[in-house]
User: What shape does this take?
Amino acid sequence: MPRALAQKMALMGEQIMLARKRRHLSMQDVADRATVTRLTVSKVEHGDPTVSMGIYARVLFALGLESAIQGIAANDPLGRALQDAELKA
Assistant: This one.
């Protein structure tokens, strides 16, 4: 995994951990709500890239942050520029 991507995954995990702590929830509370193990929540909070995206989504849902999923790839300036270039041709 590229280092820059690993750093972004770690940051995302840290942000999820901070969201959990702000809600005064234990890892076990989130694990129970997301129907995963405490170990899996720990992996999510460390930004482990081997955890499936579905598990990340379930943890976000357990924290009430599922709307954040809609932001993934929403801002795509390169893709839009490529699409506009095709329309001009």
